[in-house]
Each structure stands twice: as C-alpha cells, then as structure tokens.
User: Fold these one by one.
Assistant:
Number 1:
Amino acid sequence: MEIIFSIFALVVLAAIGVGSVMVLLFFARKMGLISPQTATPAKTEASGDWQATETSPSQGFQLPKLKGISQSLITRFVLVAILSLLMNIPLNMVESVVRERGQLYNSVLNSIASTWGKQQRLSGPTLLIPYTEKFVTENTLTDKDGNERKVNKTSYKQRTAIVLPESLDINSDLKGHERTRGIYKSLVYSADLSLKGHFKRPDIESLSNYIDEIHWEKAWVALGVSDTRAINKVSALRWSDQRLDFEPGTRVTSLIQQGFHAPLSIDKTQSRFEYSLDLNINGSSGFYFEPFAKTTDVKITSDWPHPSFQGSVLPTERSITDNGFEAHWSIPHLARNFPQMWIVETQQFNVHEFSAGVNLFEPISLYSQITRTIKYGILFIALTYITFVIFELGIQKRLHIVQYGVIGLALTMFYLSLLSLAEHIDFMRAYIAAAALISIMISLYAYSAVRSLSRAGLVFVLLSGLYFILYSLLKLEDYALLVGTGLLLLILAVVMYFTRHIGNDKDASENPVTPEVDTQSIDSDANSSDHSPKENRLDTPDSLG
C-alpha cells in the first residue's frame, strides 16, 4: 500500500511540475522574455520570388505555440489532474462542516443521556458480613528497679467479609424510546429487571484464625447500578421469608461506587438464603452486567432490531429479527479472576474486569455515512472530468478550464446539500434529492457548453449511475472495498478502451507510408530504352516534298 501511495505521489508531483512549467512559459511569452518563432522573407535564386523562411535556432530560443500545447491531449489530462487535486480544498471544507455537525450531535446525545440515563452496568448482588478480629500480644515491661513483668495487650480490628451468590438469574426487557431535542434524535431505553438466586451460609471462620465475633445481625446486601439517578422503581428485597427496604449507597464504595443496599439480620442456623427483587431503570447506549455468582444466567430481550453484543463474553444463544432480539448468557465463576469470598480490607480484586452486555446499535449514523461519501469525492470528480475530456475528443470542441472548475465545485456541493437535507428527512430521500439536483445542474451546464442534447443526456446518465453506485457502496458495509475495487477496474477498462487509438492518426500523418519501388524493374526498363533504336526526328526529302 505504501508503494502505491508513493507512485501516486510521484505522478501527482510530475503533473504539478509540468503544469508549473507551462504556466511559467506562458507568462514568459507574455512578458516578452522568450520570443516565438518568426518568419523572415528570403529571395530564392531559382525563381527570384520572395518566400517566408523560419529563423534558425541561433536567432533565439524557439518554442512551440502555446495554443497547440493547451489543446494537446496530454495537457488536458495534466490540467484535469491538477484541478482534481485542487478540488480537495472544498471537499476538506465540507468535511470539516460535517465533523462539526457530528460533534454537535454527540454533545446533544450526551446531554439527553445525562438527564434520561447513561449506559447502565449492573453489579451484584453481594452479601457483606462484618466481624471482629481479636489480637492478644504479650509485652515485657521493666520498672525502675529493674523488675520485669509480662503484660498482655488486647487489640481489635473490624473486618468485612464479602460473599458472592451461588446463583444469579437476570431477566431484562429493554424497551427502546426516541427522544428529540431540536433537529436531533436520540435512542434511549427503559429496562425492567428481575433478579433472583440464592446464597449459601458462608464459612466466615475460614477467613481468619483470630475471629472474635461475627456480626450476623449487621449484615447487608449491596447492589450496584452505574447511574442511580436513572432508577425509576425498586421493589423490596425478598430475603427468604423477609421483605427488606433498600437504602442509598452500597457501603462498600471501594468495590462498588454507585448503587444501594438493604440491611438484614442473618439466621446463622440456615444454610441457604433465597433472594429476589425487581427494578426499573432508564439508560442509553447499552446495558451491561457483571457475573458475580458461581453460575450466572442472563436473558435480555428488546424491541430494538440492531443489537451489538459486547463485553468479555458473547451470548451462548441469540435470536435477531426485525421486531427485536433475544440473547442468553450462562457464565460460570471460573471465567473471572476473583473468588467467591474474601476480606474487603486486606484483599483487593477488580470486580469490574469481567462484564458482558449489549449496545443498542444504530447501523450507520448520518454523519458517518456522509463522511464515507466524501471519501469518494475526489474519485467522482476525476471520473467526471475524464468523461468531459473524452467528450472533447468526440465533438472536437474544448471546454475552458474555468468550466471544469465550476463543474468540480458543483460536485462538491452535493455533499453539503446531502448534509443539510439529511438532517431533516431520511437519508435515502435526501440522497436522491441531492443527487438529482446536482446531476440536473451539471447536465444543463454541459448542454450550454457543448450544445449537444444527447451528450448532455449522457452526462446526466453517467452522474446518475455514479451516484447510484456510491449509494450501493454505502449500503454494502462488509463488501464495500471489494465492490469499490471492482468499480475502479471497470472504469479503468472503459478509459483504456476509449483512449486506445489516441496518437495513431498523428503518427500516421507525421510518418507517411512510402510505397516500395522495385528497383530491378526500373533498371531493366532503363537498359531496354538505351538499346532500342532512337526515333529519327529529321524530315526526309519525301516529307519535304
């Protein structure tokens, strides 16, 4: 690829160099620095007539006429190449406008998300149980008389054990909504979540040999939600036979920053604790979960037909239709890098390193589509210019370089027209309207220049075909490169076909074919004429008489 770009750069530099030399020669002649070829009268010896003869090279530097240079085919292609490169300037200006509008659109999306709800991430639930460790140390004290005595010093430390569930089942139903601000629209969702599972009685004694007391009555259950401002409703926590209300905060911000918790008292005689809860939250962009349980089963359904599954693991089952999608994950605890139970104060694990979920994906955003369209701009301008050059060969009429520039500016206006229309109507109708407008304008301009209705109609058909092919490339996301490469090869073949005879007529006129002469026959004719009797031109007496 670097070699191709290097060759292209050399060709461009050569074209610029040739064009610069021609411009310098033009101004040199205009300023009188270089004199053109002049004819001086001279009298021939044979006839005595005066004839015009060209000055010799010693009389001044001779140049071919600039008019001939400007009308040559090579010059036309060089000028077209230079003008095509110059058209990158307005194309870049249009692209900067598209970029600014895209940034404004993203800022509006962020503003809507900040008020409705950002991307949501569900962490938990987790069970936290505080306990006290008792440490007894023996110290030896010496009094002023040198007597030693041993004193036991007792210290206590408060610890918190975090316990993850044995099972977690999450059912999530995402309902898509559209929010509008000005001319911009944003996709958001509301999620109905249902969580259930069970914990087993944790073996807190295995965490430390210095446990003095386990505070079963001070335990709590924490659930993390990344954007708590978007919580609409949360049911009470159903814990075995208890119903517990949630309170703000997780009380373990070192692990889960945002969320809520429910204080509870654990019956240490039980070996299994069932839990369940329901909540409704708003969000945008996507929904993610973190598999905290030993076995995590998640089912997500939505009415949005364009999901983009992301995260550390993809769903084991999924179904996507025009009416929405359904996905299912089943994740064991061996997939993550943290245990089922540990001490919060002494052990640190990144519980957010493993997550999975889905983005409500918009197939191709408006501004990315227009940006992709602009990337084909220089190709379209060059193809249109080559078409007009081929027309010039057919009608023996030259377009002015200014006319080429006006046509290029009209082609760049297509992208600005597409942007302004697509912000108010759907992309397909905006594309058709902008393409039709520019094609008609250029076709009418071509008719006024070449005065040929058929050729102007051919220009319209060509532009319409190019815009149709461009639209097809935009829709073929996976095969755009393959189709685009095939298109370039096809166009190159067409150009090669129409230019296959260029220069043949000129070579034939400059080097006329001389018929071969049989020298042997000429010599034989000459010899025979020399030996034949000559005709007597003298008058005989008989004739005189």
Number 2:
Amino acid sequence: MALVPSGAEERAKARAGMGVATTALNRRAPLLRQSAMFVLACGLVLSLLAWHMTARRTDEEASRSFQQASQHITRLVEERMLRALDLVAGFRGLFSVHRHVSRAEFREHFNSLHLPERFPGVIAIQYAPLVPAAEKAAFEAQVRADTSLDPHGYPDYAIHPAGERDFYIPVLYNEPMAGNEAAFGHDNTAEPSRRRAMERTRDTGEPIASPPLTLLQGAAGFVIRHAVYRRDAPLWTEAQRRAAFLGQVSGVFRTTDLLSSLLEEHLKGYRIRVEDRGDAREGQGPAALLFDSQAAHASPASLLGAPQRLEAPLTVAGRVWVVEVSRPATLPHLAPLPVAVLLSGVALTLVVRWLLLGMARHSDRTAEIAARLAHEATHDALTGLPNRLLLEQRLKEALETAKQDQTRLALLFIDLDRFKAINDTLGHEAGDVVLRQVALRLRGALRPTDTVARLGGDEFVVLLSVPTGNLWRGVADRILALITQPMTYGEHRLSVGASLGAALYPEHGTDAAALLRHADDSMYAAKRGASLATAPPAPSSRAG
C-alpha cells in the first residue's frame, strides 16, 4: 500500500511546480516581447505602405472626378448660353419674317414660351427701335397713344435719360412689363458701354453680350443684343448693315438665377466662378465677376494651401468668359478610405499591446470620468465657479474652523443689476458673456483661500475669512468697482451693476442657513436703495 504524501511533501511539490511554471513564463516573456516588437514593426510598415497606396489611388480618382465635373459644368454653362442666344435670335426672327411686329404679337410670342418656368434668369426680352433725333417727339407721342394692350395707353412714356443725341435706341417692347418699368423708354445710346454694344451688333449683325453690369432692374447681370434689319435689304458690308439697321432685340439676364438652378447639383462640392475676361477681338483682359457660387460666404484661407482650380474659356456673343471650378485643398492621406486602411492596420498591429494596457487605460478613464463628474456636480457649467452644493460644503467647513479658532467670516451676496435687460435685448449669448466676465473679475478680486460661487441666474456668493476689523468692506468695494467696469460684446459696450449684501459670523448667525438668509435680505435691502439705518442689520452696499 502506497503511503499518502505528507503535508510537507505536498508543499514541496507545489513549490516545484510553481518554479517550473515561473521558469516557463520567464523564458516565454522575452520571446513574447520580441515577437510583439517584430509584429509592431512589420505591421506599422505594412500599414503605412497600404495607407500611402490607398491615398494615391484616392487622390487620382478624386482628380479624375474633379476634371470630369469641371468639363461637365463648362458644358452646362455653354449650353445654357447657347439657349440664351437662341432665345434672343428667336425674337429677332419675328422682325425678319414680318415687316411689322406689333406690341401684341411681341407679347403673345413671349407668353407662348413660358420663360419664367422654362428659363430661369430671364429678366426681360425687349425691342428698341432706331429713332432719329428729329422724330423723337413724334415717336413718344405715338407710344403714349398706343392702346393696343392697355386702354389707357402709356401717358408717361418718355425716352430717358434726358439729353440731346443724334439718334436714340429706346426700349419700346418690354416683356414682362411688371418689374421692368425702369427699362421702358430707356435709351441704349445714353451710356458708353451700352452704345458700344449696340454699335457692334449693328455693324456686324452678330449677337453681342455686354460686360457684367448693374441692370436697370436693380440686379447684377448682362444683356445680349442682336441687331434687327430691314427685310430684304443687302447686308454684305458694314455700310449696308448700318443703312438697313432698324433697332435691336435684347435679352436681359440675371446671372445668379441663370446659373444657380442649372448648377445646383454641383454647388455643394465645388466653388464655381464665371468671369468675363473682355472683348473676344481684343484678347483676355481684366476679370469681371459674373457668377460666384460662394460669394456670400467666401472660404477662409486653408492651412492646406490654395484650392485646386480648373479653368475653361468660352466665347459668348463676342465676350470671353472663363468658367473656373475649384475645390478645397485636401490631403489625400487624410481622406476617409486611406485613414480607415491605416487605422485598421495599426489597430490590428497593436492588439496585443492594447490587451496588456487595456486595464490600465480603463482605470485611467474611470478615474478621469469620476473626477469630471465630481467637478460637474460641484461647479457651475457656465462660469466654472463652485455651485450651491460646494458652497454649502465649504461654508460648513469654514464655520467649523471659525468656531474652533474663534475667527470671523463674511458672506457677501451679490445680485447683478440690468442683467435681465441685456438678456432680453441682446439674447442669452450676451448674458452668458456677462456672467463669465463677472465670474472672472470676482476670481481676480479674491485671495486663493476665499470662495466665490454662483447660485444660479445672476446671483453670486463670496465667502471670506476676516481675521480682524472690516476687511470685508474693502473686498466688497473692490468687487463692486470691478463689476461696474464696462464689458464688450461684439459691437456693444455693456454695463452692469450689482447689489451687494453681507452677513458676518458670528454677529448675524452661527449656521449656514442663517448667514445666507441674512446676506440675501441685506442684498435686497441694498437693491431697494435702503440706507444702512433702514436696511436689515447687516452691512450692505449697492452699485450700478
């Protein structure tokens, strides 16, 4: 029969087993550390390589998409302008087909096109005939007597702006009339740039676009003018065209409306600018802005550098337009996909290390959360000052210390004046600025051993240890002086005051509730303007 091992033998075997296990762990630990370092090095290298390759592919794809979008946007602008030219040419065709086009026929053709729905950005379509200076009065009288559309005629019609000129090109047909009344009767020869555009379309027979200008309708845009000639007249030479010139058809366009709806799907990802670079015959000149998709909120300079831009020139009715498409500067390595690849590789590489340090990180996070929660529970979220809970705790501790050491305390209760008016007129953000400024000034007026707390709203409490005399009065005066100093909020200069009441230990109470109550009563007495003789039996002051 085998003997049962004694207790000593069992303990010896256990120690031997533990020794073997410890030796195995000691031998394996360096290997694991070396393996972890090898995995870390290889994993980081592979992660960085994959990150870089993915970033390159992402950047190449983004550049291709940007180029395609730029080309598509340019085509859209070009097609829209061709439609605008066709629109003006269509109205010009009325005068080529008919020897005389009446006001009613002009309006009927305009209404049949349903332009407000089908062609956003068209402000007006107009016809302006050539009126020699000698015929001006007769022409105006004829228009005033025209009752073809309005039974009252146009009794106020006059060619404007006033002035003697050798001939006039006044707007006669003006559709729609509503909203375009300022253009009715306007002479296109009165202003040099408009006259030059008229003369060029007259001499060439081609549609001519104006530079960017402020329209008579009060908007920024441009005008396309196309000369109208006498039917069956020879138009081979400039002299023949001048002799046959009858007037012009004009299309008035607001650039923002013309292009915004067309480019709507591209406006979020890119900034689109259309610039006029001058007369096509003279080559590109200084840029004049026609359209900017982000004109109202231009982007601040980026730390990543200048945005990427692509430009494409267009010839539009004798003008050179440049369509510029830009996108914000980016770092392809920080794009979502490359970052995801990098983070995934690094995360897999660090998994062993993360497991080992997980408990420590968890403990740190727990302590940090606990400290933050403790701070939030005892401090005001807006000003960072102690709240009522922490004030009561410190006041209780201060009372106990004062009783033991037979010292005195002062409790100052502060209520801001004119704060509600600022909050109501300028909003809560302005009120928050005032409260934070007051809190900052209160901190600066006190010693590190003193306590300043916010009870809520516009009420603050200061707890002072006052070893002798009326030291608290000097602190109170300094606080009131600091609070009444003006504050700046935007363009506003704010000024608040404060009503202050005080309670002293042990004169006005030996417990927290009594001191707070007395200080509160004293503050309200100060707010009512009571003198020291009529106020509650506590020192009080008022400012503001």
Number 3:
Amino acid sequence: MTTKDTPIPAIPTGSVAPSTPTAITGGPPAAIPASPNPTSGIGTTAAGATLALGRGTTGSIGTNGVTAGGPTGGAGAARRGRLEAYGIGLLLGLLMVGWLLPAEVLSGQGGLWRSAGVDLSQNLSGHLAYQSGPWHWPLLVSGNLFPPHGLSIAMTDSNPLLSLVARIVVAPLAGHPVNLFGAWIALCWLLQPVAAIYAVRGFTPPALPRGRALAIAAAAAAMALLWPTLLHRLGHTNLLAHFCLLAALGLAARALRDGTPLRFWPGFALLAATILIHPYLFLFAGAVLAAPVLRPQPGGWRGLLRPGATFLAMLVLPVLLHRLLSGTSGGADRGYGFYSMNLLSPLWPQVSGLFGADLPVLDATGGQYEGFNYLGAGTLLLVLLALILGWRRGWLGGWRRWAPLLAVLASLTAVAVTPRLYAGPWLILPLPAWPWDQVFGIVRASGRVFWPVGYALLLGAIALLGTRLPLRALAPALALAVALQAADAAPLLGEVRNRLAQGDAGLTPLPTLPPGTTLLRTALACPATAADTTLAERLRLAAVQQGAALAEIRASRQPRWFNCETALTDALETPLAPGETRLLLGPAIALLRPAALGPGATCVRQPNAGADAVFCATTPHLPGTPLPATAPLPRLGAAPVLASSWKPDAHGLPWSEGPRATLLFTTTAPRLRLTLDGIGRRPGEARDITLRIQDAPPLTLSLPDLQPTEILLPIPDPTRPVRVAIDIFRPIDPTRRALAAPVDRAGVRLRAISGVD
C-alpha cells in the first residue's frame, strides 16, 4: 500500500532522475544507491542505506519515511513552502500575543508595570533612567545611576539592545522615556514559534512534501509556545528571548545537515544581538554554534584552522563590542552549583495541569528553581515515540552526522546538573565546587544551561517522526502531543496571563515619595531582608518614573568600588543635597542620626503594610509622622565618637568590621590626629586604606602591619559635624592570621583620636 505522498526514486550523485517515478510500498524497501559524498545525505532508511538528499533535491516520504530524492519543484514552490510554514508560526505567535497581553501591558503603562516585583523594577529602572540625561562613554553607561560615576545598564539587566532602540528612536519621538518592555514581551512570543520552525527545518531535509512540512512546522511552533521553561521565565523579561536559542539550533543544524561551514555573518549577528540582550543567551547560543566546528575536517587538524578561526571571530567580536559599549564585562559571581538543575527536572511533572498544578518545582539546594526544565507531557511523548520507533525500526542510523551537536548538548547538561548532582532530594554525585566554580562561575544560574538541550530534544523528536512516520499516523501523533502539552502547561499559562494583567502578587502599597525629589539614596541593613529589598527597588522605580536619579541600584554585578556598608553609612551620616531624598528601611532606621544630615533636614515615618519607611529631605511639609528628637552628635573628647562598624577588643581598642568604618562627632579644633594600626592580609604586609574627612578629597594611605601610624588631618569646616570615613578593600578574616580580634573582617585598629589646635 502506498502513501499519499508523491514518491520519488533516489538519485545517486551524478545520475539523472528517471522519467517514471516509482512508489515505495509497505513491503521490503527497494535498494537505494548511497551517495558517494558522505555530507550529502540526510539520514538512512530502515534498511540502512544513505539517502541522497543534498541541496537542490527533495525527498518523498512513504511508510518507511524519507525514501528517495529528486529535483526540487522549483524556486517558486520552495518559496511558497517557506512562506506557508513561517506564516503558520507568525499566526500562532499573533494569537498568543493577543490572548496573553492586554493593551495596557503592551503599551508599557499598566498591568504588570503598575505592580512590578524586585527584578522587573530593577530592569525597568535602568531602562527608563538610560533614556534621559546626556550621553556618556561608554555608550551603555547611564549617568542617572550611581552619579557621578554612572553604571552600565548591562549590569541592571535592562536589555541594552532594547534600551538603545528606546533611547535613539522612541524616546526622542515621544519626548520622554518610554517603557518598551511590553513590546519586548510581545516580540518574544511572536518570534518564538517562527524561530522554532526555522530550527526544526534545519533538522529535516531541505524540501518535504507540503502536507508533511506544514504538519512539522505547526507542531514545532505550537510546542515552542507551550514550552514550560519559557512560561516560567516571565520574571526575567530579557530571558524570554528563547527565540535566539532556537535560531542558534537552526544555524548549527543546517551546517551539520548539509556538511557546509557555519555561516559567519548570521552567526555573528545572532551572537552580537544575544550579548546585548543577556549574556546567558550569548553563552548558550555560542555553545550550540560550536557544534559544526567540532565535526571531523578534511586534512585533520589543519583543516580545522579556518572554521576554528571563523568561529573564534564570531565569538570574540561580540564580546569586544559589549566591552566597548558597556565598559565592563561583568564577571563571575558566587552561586555556581546552588542554582543548578535537578537531574529529574526535565522528566518529573512540576506545576502540571495533568499531574497536579500544586506539584512544586524540584529543589534540593534552595536555588534549583533556576533549573526548572520540565519538558511537558507532549514533549515527553514525542521523545519517547522517537526513541522507541527509532530503535525498533532502525531510524537512528544517521546519528553520527549529529555527533558534534550531541557532544555539545551532553556537555551543557553536565554543567547544568553539577557539581552536586541531585535526583529529587537525593544527592547522587557530590563533586567538590573547586575547580569547577573557577571555570563555570560566570554561569551563576547554571540550571539554565539546559535550555538548548530541551529544545533540541523536542526538535529532534519532531524531525525524526516527521520524516519517518506515514502522514496518516504523523498528524494524529503530533496533534495528541500538542494537546497534552497544552493541558500540561495550563497552570503556567494561566499564571503568566494573570501576572501580566494584574502584576506581581503580594506586594505592599508604596509609601509616598516626597515631591521635588531629584536624587534618591536608600539605606538598607547589611544584609537586607527580601521584603526591604523589594520595597526599595520598587521605590527606586517610582523615583526614576518621576525623573529622579538613583544614588544606588540593585545590580547583577555591582561596581568594584561599591559595597552595602558604604551605601548605608553615606545615607545615614552625610548632609542632604538640594533635591535629595533619603529612604531608610528596617533596621537602618534605628541607626539614623538626623543631626548629621545637615540644617533644614526633616525625617518622617510612613508606616507601610508589612514594612516601615522613613524619608528624610529638606523639603518642607513632608507627608508622614515626624521622628521624635534625638540626642545631639557626641563631642570629640567628651563622648565615644565611633559611628559605624567598630567593635572593641579585650583591651578596649576598636577594630573595624567590614569594608567601611566611620567616626562622627563635633569639634572646634581645626585639625584631627588619628592613630591607626593596619591589619595586613599577610604578616608584614601593609594595609592600604582610603580616608575621607567631611567632603574633602579622599586620601590613600598605606599602614604598616600591626604598627601604629599617626595621621594628621585638617578639618575643612569645624562648624559642621565631622565625619571620617575609612574604606578598606578586601578586609581579612583575622583567624587566618591567628589574631585575637572581636570582628570577622578586619582592616584597621583605632588606637587614639584627638583634636589639634
């Protein structure tokens, strides 16, 4: 019995197609001549013969899959086939966007943007702050963040590519900063199915019968839109760009399928875009694009030189571009292994519409929520069918063509689940963190590394079944898989839709920001609670939306010179600037010395649901309850003048704790004498410190280890409160030097302080 597909006999290399095509019946397959060129084939038949399906040929698919190849139906037919396939993806994307995103979310005005949590507030603050103020160099630096230094919006995960478009094109037309993240979310869901079709077409012969090609395209598009990992990512809007990973898979698959070099310009453009969207996407896409370079090359290692150099340029040039525009490359951070993937995560149902919406994300470390990679019931069905039928019917004989990609995917999986491999709650392989954290530390949330692997499993299963199953069996199988995937993803879909329309749940009302604020500085305890961090980030966003600059902001990689203790003490102990507002939250409120904020400063308390906020400003009539009067600042020589981060030892000598220690007092003396001991990182090693008194320029000093050094400082204005700030880079744990100290991070020891006439 023949299928409805038009069968075409195989054409050996250099032969001419016979004039009368013959069908392949359900009986024993006819012998098919193998292509002498090993790179021209696409797979093998059930009998193991290589298919001659290179460029310019098309295959027919009978009951035994792709069985033959012949001339294409012309450029016009191929173009129509592509338009139809991508049209399906575009239509499905438009339908998903229309169903998911209310107009107010798309415009960047309401819904999620009225009630954004900590991550979205951080991203949006950088995005909006970047669009106002003068240009800086490097170009991605915003002077409205950490003034006067500025901060690259790459460090606030504010999608530099999108923010550049907003600043150069949209904001000038609108006359004010514009939130493009709503349009970005729509773009991600619009391109997701289109990119999935592009990718799956790379895993199939260059031309397929129309009905089969459309079935494969529709299934890939629908499954990509219902991908649980994508639906789980709404809180990180930049990381919704999974279409970049699908595009990388499509490029790599075409090069492996056709035996052609990886094309430089498409690969470079993709990697340049991904690094300006989010570095994680760049790393994952770059790993996938390495697969064609890993295949055996004619001429041995010498043949590898050209494709290797091309790929290296493709990889390095975007990094240099990012460095040039951003001024920083970020860097490694702690967390590798903590945010890993649980080994069972792809298989075990989590937040599942079929097995239980209340099933939690598998998390054995406290951070494996970042490794959520459940494939979904429909994907698992397709992968299982592909493995069973492929094994029993001998469809897997062409796997060697894909060996480089399989090696890359296996390596990505290993990075995702290590160094401490958990299967559910059970620790299977307890590898030490070192040296792996030194190599992969830049991939802090390593569980995300599995994303391309999951997509490759889906696309590979669809491609194998789509080119092997008869159409009468293929269509129901794909339809069943899509239905199962939709039912399984229903809870996540509902959560995404509700969150887009209503915003993040459980957020407290925001206190009222004082009018006329041009600079917001926040004071949070070190470390701050999650509730205080979230409230501070939301208020920073509110300040940016009112046109204010931010003295500090939460960032994925903070500047080298920034630390929490410095920000806290600066907010508590320095005079207010005109237009500046200080926000104090939680335990930081008890540390406030209003007299240090200068004349005319007013501090009011605004009780908030679940949090306590204090605002300080020079603005009259601040909304809130004024704080009760506090004791004046101590006078030098009459009372202790230790302000922040000191602890006395058994002899009464104060030791600094952490990277910043301060003194705060009043005096009439024109000069100040300090006697300090340096605490070197090693015995005999000098301790470098930076010392600042009032608003005088900072002074860098080198103190001998455990030896007293007398320092004489002029006081710029003795009529004002005197503040001495001592900054220590990388304080040391004194137990490493067997020092009996009352602190955990030591830098200096204060022996004496006095005024000098």
Number 4:
Amino acid sequence: MKKLSTLLFFICLSVGVFAQTPKGFNYQSVLRDASGEVVSNTVIGVQFKLRKTTATGAVTYTETHTPTTNAYGVFALVVGQGTSSADFSSIDWAADTYFLEVGVDMSGGTSYTNMGTSQLWSVPYALQAKYVENGDDLGSHTATKNMQTAGYWVSNDGDDEGLFINAEGRVTTSEKLVLGSNVNLGTNWINADGTNGKGIKFDSTGSVITSGNVGIGETTPQASLDVVDIAVIGNTTVGTQSTSQNASSQKDLGFVTSPWMYTKAIEATDERGSSSTLITLGNDGNFGSSDEIHFVTDGASQLDVSKDLVNVTDRLAVGGNIDVGGILNPTSGNVIFGDYSNTGNLSNLSDKNVIIGSQAAEAAQSGGNNVVIGYFAGYNLNGSSNVIIGAGAGTSGAAFSNKLYIRDLLYGEFDNDLLQVKGALEVDDDIQTDGEITIDQDGDDLMAAGAKKAVEIISVIINPSGTINSNVTNSSGITSSLSGNTYTVSYSGHFSSPPAVNITCIAASTSNIRIPTITLLGSGKVEFRVASSGGTSKTDAGAVLHIIGRR
C-alpha cells in the first residue's frame, strides 16, 4: 500500500499593492508513497474542508480538486478555486478561528484519506482586506489599533480626493461631507485648529455650545449672533423670560424682551401663510392683539401700530423730517392723523385728502382734495376742494365744495374769488385788490390799526351828473346831488364828527386836468367843486371819494 506524505506551504499574499485581492489562498504539497518514493505524473483527488472554532468543529466549506503531480511529486492548488456547492467569498474570516482539513485519493477518485487538520493563521485572513478595495462596506468592526494612511487620500477610486489626514490629525475633505449616520463627538470640540475649548460642541441634550461669536453670512461676526440678512424667528427670548411670556398661549406668538436685539426684520410665527402678525417689544402685561406691533417702555405701552392706526400713548418727539406717503389709504394718497371713535366713514373719502385732528372728518360722506385741520373740523365733510381749519369749523352738515372755513372768522369761495371776514379786521398797511371789497356788510366794525373806537370807511364814485355810480356796493344810506357847480355827498348818521375825505377826479380825457376842491366838510355831508387847471368850474368829470371817520 502506498503511503501519502505532504508538505504544506502557505504563500503569504501582499494584498495592499494589488488592484484586486484573490478569492482564495495557495496550497502546495509533495506526494510520496508508503516507501517514501515520489508519486510523479499522477492524477490524484484532493478534498479541502474548512472547520470553524476547533480542529473538529463544524464544517463551513468543502471543495474538491483533481490535480496531476509533476515529476517531483509536487502539486499546487488554490483553496477557494475548487469544485464546491458553497460560496467561498461569503466566509467571514474575521468572525472566528478556522482550521483546514486535507483529504487525498491517490487513485484520482473520491475516497479521500484524511491527511490531518491544521489551524489557519495569517495568510487567509488577508482575504479580509478585499472589503477595503474600492470603498466596499467593512461591516461592523472595532479597531484595536490605529489606522495609518501615511499621507495618502482615502477615496473610492484611488485618486487624490475624498479624505486626507495630515500629520497633526486634521481631516480635509475635497467635496461636501455627507453623513449616512450619526456622528458621536462625545465632549470634543469642532474648530479650525483642533484646540480644546474653542469652537462649537454638543452636550448630551443636543444643545449647541459655542466659545465665540457666530456669524450667518458674516465672516467677522461682531456679536454672539451676527446675522447679515433677514432672520425668520418663531420664538426668541433675549435676556430673562418673564412668567407671562413663558405661558404657552403667548410664547408661541414670539416675544422679544430686553436687553437688546439687533436685526433687520422680525417675522412672526406662520406670518408667510397667515394674516396674523404680532410683534411685541417689552412687557406690560398686555401683549397687543392680532395684526399689531406693540412697543413698551418702562412697563407701559407707548406705541401700537395696527392696520389703520398709529397710536402714541405719550408724545411723539422727532429730531428730523417725517416723510409720510399716506396712512389710511396710501394708494389714493390720503394722509390721515387723528384719534377716532369710529374710522368706518373715513373710507368714504376718495383721494388726495389731508385730515389732521381728533375726530376730524370722522363722519365724512364723500370728498377729495380737501384739507381739514382741527378737532371735530369738517366732521360731516361732504364735498371736494375745501380748506377747513379750526376746532368745529365747517360742520354745517350740508354738501359744499371749493369753500374756505377758518373757524367762524373767515369764509371764502375759491370758485367765486370771494373772501369774507366775520368780525373786526385790524389793518396796519394798505389793502390792495384787483376785485371788489365789501366793507361792513353785516354792520360789524372795521378797525383801523391803533384805533380805540370804531372806524368806518366809505368809498363812492360820483358821476359827472352828480349821481352815485352803481358799481359801488357799500353806498347804502349815501346820497349825492349836483346843484350848479357844487356837488353834495350826504352820509348823515355815519360819523360822530367830521371825517377825513379824499377826492380824486376822473377826467373824460387825459388832456383835461380836473382839480377837486372841498368847499364844506361836516359830520353829515361834504360839498366840493371841480375846476380846470385854469380855475374854471367844470361838471364834466367823475370823482372817487374815500370817506374815513369815527362812527
């Protein structure tokens, strides 16, 4: 009977320098018979079994070969490349210890003689390195030693990209870092130079802790939080949050307390999809209402801004200009300032109205291009192009347009070029007009500057025939006549003493010079004659008389 002896060589594989790790490991042996002679040039049968944990453990893999020995009895095989019903590549070499059992049939059949079992050491475990190739999944492992990249990149294709770890341990990425799972930083910090206690870190509750300023859109932040653009904030508390603000019914609305907050804009909760806006600065126990901005100073409400109203509790001090483009209805150009019990009727105004004053035009029915200034002024406004100034001015209730009301003192009609003074008028200079002047139409006094008693002014035009010219409108109670060459103008009952009379002649021709001469002046009448430059009496010129005296 032939005796089989074998010599097993484990050829170490250098897996780190090949493009691909082989699926197997080498086995080489010399076959001899029972007398020790080499069995050369013979087809034989070989069986390999891999046992787990111990030399007699469970068989996890079996394969067979039919090699031919060479002239020296040597045959060489690759374990993992034989005939088998199992998958050699599915063996988890890192999971356990493995043993190789070798069986040989020298006749080339399948009646294998067990030649012994040996533990596999380092060579086959190089197969585990195949999982590192081309970014394959390493599975779940615990490293027992440090991994050294020796200045090379870790990538999926071997190029200089992916992750790079320098000598100081700093990690550089060539692209965005996308994490497929959670990263546990422990108590370590994230920063630019690896220094402990600097940058950001996370505590066990997930809160973010920073040691310096945070800039959003800002490369050199100047504050703990420095935001360049608009920040959309649902609920922010700066400083100590009050008990009232912490209530769930109020907290969700988004309140801001002292000391300071620097921002371009505050956008309330759900503002983008809701009509409700509430921004409150300060705390007075009153958080305002929907669609309102509420400012509090020293525990008291100072300013409330809502849809149609700006309400200042105290006074409004302005150090510069105020540029107002419209308050109630900016699209039509109305500008309205005031305190109102009911603003409903203000919407009846059309456009280009300026309304200033408490309850001014509060019950307006219509109108455009009006100026209304004063408490209760133009209360029932119904018309256009009016100027109404003063408390209670222009409140008749009737419809009117193109009118001027200044309290009860002045009345005017813009379309008729009319201005009326209701009361005494004090004048310390000349009055010039290109229209008519109605004086003392209702019997009130016209006061000259410095006068202690009532002064009356009568202006009349006397025709050459001695009659009063009909264009004079204030000649009530005045009569005139011509007797011979003497003109007489009677104003009995108007003056308490002789008045001052000024007479100017109106000649029919510029070549004729006419000179008036007063022949009698009394408290009730004045008589005068008209003569040529040569002293000849004439009755061919009109005369304008201005009579001024104390009543």
